[in-house]
User: What shape does this take?
Amino acid sequence: MASVRDPEATRARIFDAAVAEFAQYGIAGARIDRIAAEAKANKQLIYAYFGNKAELFAQVLGRSMVDLAAAVPVDPDDIDGWVDRLLDYHATHPDMLRLLFWEGIEYGSTELPDEAARRDYYAGKVAALEDGQARGVITAALPPGDLLFLLVALTNWAVVVPQMRRILTGAEDTDRERLRASIKEAARRLLAR
Assistant: This one.
C-alpha cells in the first residue's frame, strides 16, 4: 500500500524544522540537509516550497513575527498587560528572539530581503502607540517608533541574554518575578505623560 502524500503536512514539517535549525545555527550555520532530515523530506521539496536558504529564513522569521503580532498586539491602554503577554510569549517561544538576533548578526544594518514587509509589520504597532499618544494615554514626548523600539528592547533583552539576566538579577523564580515587575515599572515610566 503506497503512502498518501500530504504537501501541507510536509510544508509544516519543513517549516518547523527550519525554525529550530535557524534558531540554533543562524542563517550561515543552518544546513538544508539537516532541515530535510528532521522534516523527513527531500531537499528538492524545500527549494520548491520555500526557495533558497535565505528565502526560507525570511519566510520563517516573517511568519514567526505575524504569529507574535497576532498573539501580542501593542496596547497603549494596558502596558502592564502587554509587557506580561510579551514576556510570556517569549518564554514559550524562545526561538522568535533567537531568529531576530541571528538576523541582526547576519545582516547588520544592511537592507533585509523582506524589509518592505517588515516595515508594514511594524507600522501597525507604531500606529497603536501613535493612537495612544493622540488620545493622551501615553507620552507624546518621544516619537512612537522610538517608543516601540525602547519598549521592545526593555522587554526582550532578558530573553536574548539570559546569562546576563541570571548574573545581574538572580536565577530564582522570585528573581524573575521581581525583574518582571521592574520591567513593567520602567515601561510605565517611559510612557508616562
The two ends are 69 Å apart (CA to CA). The chain has a mean pLDDT of 93.
